[in-house]
Amino acid sequence: MNDKLSTRLADFLSGSYDCVDRLVFNAYFQFGQAPAGFRLWWRQLEGSDESLDNNHLMRMAGRLARRLRAYANTHNIPVVDCNTKERKDTIAGDYLPKEAGFTGLFVILVGRAPAPVWDVKKTKSGKIMNIERKIQYVNHYHFHIQDPQWGHVIIRMSGHPPFGAQIILNGHEYVACQAQKAGVTFRKEDNCFTEVTQPTHLAQIADTLSSSDIVGQLEQLFNRWIYATCLCFALDLEEQERTNFHYDYSIYQAEYSRNLLFHNGSQMQQLVQALIDHTRSWLDVKQVKTIFGATRRPFRHKDSHPQPRFEIVVEKPEYDLIIFKIHFGKLSVKLYTKGERVLRGEAIVHNTRALHVGRSLPNFPKIISELQQILIRFFDVLDCVNCAFLDDGTFDNLSRPGKLGSKSVAGIDLSKQRLRAVLNAVLALAASPYGMCQ
Q1: What is the CA radius of gyration of the chain?
Q2: DSSP conformation letters of 188-252
Q3: Residues 200, 256 within the same domain
Q4: Lowest mean pLDDT among 29-38, 131-140, 425-434
């Protein structure tokens, strides 16, 4: 679906494509989310709940760690312990497989993070008195996997039962894999296609990520890796089947981008700089609400909860890179350059609860459609604000002298206050029913 900004810039573009970017899915064992369900699952695993206590839960976490490290040592898979502040994606980048056609697990990162765990309290006689959920720091295992269809896949799993997990994908990885199979030649930098020989064909491949058929492919991908590659260190396949342990999936975060490929990089830089300078001071709350499709600013009634952020930010993290961001609660939009000739706009939902369309996996196409509409409105607003500053050169030539018939006349110098007052009067009288005649 076209937007006004892309249409206006069409003469400067060699092509464009829309693509789903970073995706984060939650994987959870539904039966283990309630105390009664978790207790019943433990009975199926151990035969009774007499051994259900904090010591046995810790032993299960320890067994997972020992199995994982022994398997990794046997198969020469690196296991890297990370500090809290270290960027794990940067560390994993050093271990990306070099050989073509590699498939499988290639590195495991270990780091501590908060996660829900069960706290079992017993009476002096050994009877279970209460099972309650609490949040504490535990080891998380980041399984970095190379998939033939989806490229780099990350599964981040808690080391404590009920072994909640997150699955992290990037749509550009999927499109790259499918484009290679289709014979489309491209140049890719990070998560962006900077050069494409067949932009239309690439755009068609990227559009498949927004179709309803993708839901089944996502579920197949998750099931292909999470049980046999990750959960197996805590529960072997026989224990998984005997206790009917299976994950349900929901969408937690999503990003959707529109990428404009320019013929000339210097033209893109000039256009982007002017676009941001013209826009950032003119956007107000009402216009931002229009972009995000909101009827009002998000707020909370309780004073104990801070109001969600609302801000317009321009960042310059490095030379010749400007990032224009608008934050609205759990939603954000961004505009920035990617590579030498790509202008990217992004719509981001940091928690899909904010979209009110459902978060379960079958609602994935609805979430992507919502982000697409937000991004289109963002581009439309940018164009509406920016086009008021565009002219055919008349403004620059107003101060130059001209001719009225055979007589020379002075130009209009708008830097003089008297002439600006005259123009204001002309505009005011132009709206009068009688014009300038009284």
Answers
A1: 29
A2: EETTEEEEES-HHHHHHHHHGGGSTTHHHHHHHHHHHHIIIIIGGGTS-HHHHHHTT---EEEEE
A3: yes
A4: 425-434
Question: Distance of CA 427 to CAs 19, 117, 387, 396, 424, Å?
Answer: 46, 68, 20, 20, 5
Residue 27 has pLDDT above 60, yes or no: yes
The answer on 305 and 186 residing in a single domain is: yes
How high is the pLDDT of residue 26? 97
How far apart are the C-alpha atoms of 294 and 232, rounded to whole Å?
44
Instruction: Give the DSSP letter of residue 99.
Output: S
Whose tokens are 């937000």? That residue is 374
Q: Does 224 lie in the same domain as 196?
A: no
438 found inside a domain: no
Q: How far apart are the C-alpha atoms of 180 and 196, rounded to whole Å?
A: 12
Q: 255 lies in a domain?
A: yes
Tens of pLDDT, residues 145-201: 999 999 999 999 999 999 999 999 999 999 999 998 888 888 887 778 878 888 888
Burial class (CB in 10 A: 0-12, 13-18, 19+), 167: buried
- Domain encompassing residue 109: 30-163+212-246
Whether 241 and 362 map to the same domain: the answer is no
Let me know whether 103 and 184 are in one domain.
no
Confidence of residue 391 (pLDDT cuts 50, 70, 90): low
Residue 436 lies in a domain: no
Q: What is the dihedral of CA 284, 287, 290, 294, to 10 degrees?
A: 10
> Span 81-87, mean pLDDT?
87
In sequence order, what DSSP letters do the residues of 102-143 get, joined into one string? --EEEEEEEEEEEEEEEEEEE-TTS-EEEEEEEEEEEEEEEE
pLDDT one-digit tens code per residue, 362-377: 999 999 999 999 999 8
